[in-house]
Specification:
Blueprint: H1 2-26, E1 27-30, E2 33-37, E3 41-46, E4 52-57, E5 62-66, E6 74-85, E7 88-97, E8 102-111, E9 114-123, E10 126-134, E11 142-149, E12 157-162, E13 166-167
Antiparallel strand pairs: 1-2, 2-3, 3-4, 4-5, 5-13, 6-7, 6-12, 8-9, 9-10, 10-11
Length: 181
């Protein structure tokens, strides 16, 4: 009986070690970047701002998307008021959020067979959480964003813009974004 219990504990430890080793393959820091990859693609992020810098992959493992450091991954337009001038409406006194965001934390999570990189940034009273999901052998990236307002007063969220790095090679590029017209 003790042998059987010991064997099952050893198997459980081996399985946990294998899961930990597989998780370690997905996300790691190197210099000023966070890298998140599986066997087919790699996403690179700025460690300080959380900006999505590049997507590498394909047969050559070269850049598919690049130069993401020039723009925030998420931009919000908040506050302000609507004014009428004739038949035209415009917003005034709005605030752009996201350009000065800084990483407050990042971590990996496993949900089912997918690994997720969670990058949390803060800009003023806003917390922007970007979640990127990858299957071990997949080439599809799932992205989710959670916004949290921590201000003491009510605010208006006017718009949200999700951004990606730009296409590296436009000669034969196709970028699919389901749900986007």
């Amino acid at each position: 009986m003790k042998l059987r219990t010991l064997a099952s504990q050893t198997t459980a430890v081996a399985l946990l070690s294998a899961c930990a080793a597989q998780a370690a393959e997905f996300a790691f820091e190197s210099g000023n970047e966070i890298h998140f990859k599986n066997r087919r693609v790699e996403l690179d992020f700025d460690r300080k701002s959380g900006r999505w810098l590049a997507l590498l992959g394909g047969a050559s493992a070269g850049p598919i998307l690049h130069e993401g450091g020039r723009q925030p991954s998420v931009m919000l337009v908040t506050g302000g008021k609507t004014v009428m001038k004739g038949n035209a409406r415009s917003l005034v006194d709005t605030r752009n959020v996201g350009a000065t965001a800084s990483v407050s934390a990042w971590r990996e999570e496993r949900i089912g067979s997918a690994m997720w990189l969670v990058v949390e940034t803060v800009d003023g009273d806003w917390v922007i959480q970007n979640r990127y999901g990858l299957e071990p052998d997949g080439d599809t990236i799932e992205r989710r964003v959670r916004l949290t307002w921590r201000g003491s007063e009510e605010t208006l969220l006017r718009s949200v813009e999700l951004r990606t790095p730009v296409l590296a090679d436009l000669t034969d590029a196709v970028l699919e974004a389901p749900g986007v017209p």
